[in-house]
């Protein structure tokens, strides 16, 4: 099985987990990078006018551009997609990533980090961007998760 791990991480927490998922699943790794990186001010969820507040709440149909477009996924059987939870769902740049490829028949496994929110609401806002994909798993990890926990999750699939 050929596997890709794609992740978005604004402050490095999800990146650390993504590297562990890639190690556990012997996958290639792709970072979803925004064309315009998110600054600390952009990430201020207490400010209704911050970039992330506007993108997530006022403009959910806007797709933040990626610095590098979605790679060719045609050779991969399973794609893990990781992200931080923003406002109970996936950042809309993850929609940008999904909308750059053809997902019919692909196995998708989601993982996320968050302060405390679960990952259950994330697929609802992603699945219309990943038409035909088969969601095989979704797991939220705490920022302090260790390789063992990631290995166990990957092994159960
Ligand atoms: C704009 C924004 C919105 C967030 N919304 C939530 C949320 O709804 N629930 C939650 O538990 N954590 C929320 N968080 C916290 C992040 O999910 C958490 O810090 C995550 O581990 C960051 O991952 P990263 O370092 O890979 O970017 C939010 C963070 C930001 C910046």
TrEMBL record:
Source superkingdom: Bacteria
UniProt xrefs under InterPro entries: Flavodoxin/NO_synth, Flavoprotein-like_sf
Protein name as it appears in the record: Flavodoxin
Organism of this sequence: Pseudoramibacter porci
Entries under Gene3D superfamilies matching the protein: 3.40.50.360
Gene Ontology molecular functions: FMN binding; oxidoreductase activity, acting on NAD(P)H
Region (Disordered): 38-69
Biased composition (Basic and acidic residues): 46-61
Domain Flavodoxin-like: 3-157
Pfam families reported in the protein's UniProt record: Flavodoxin_4
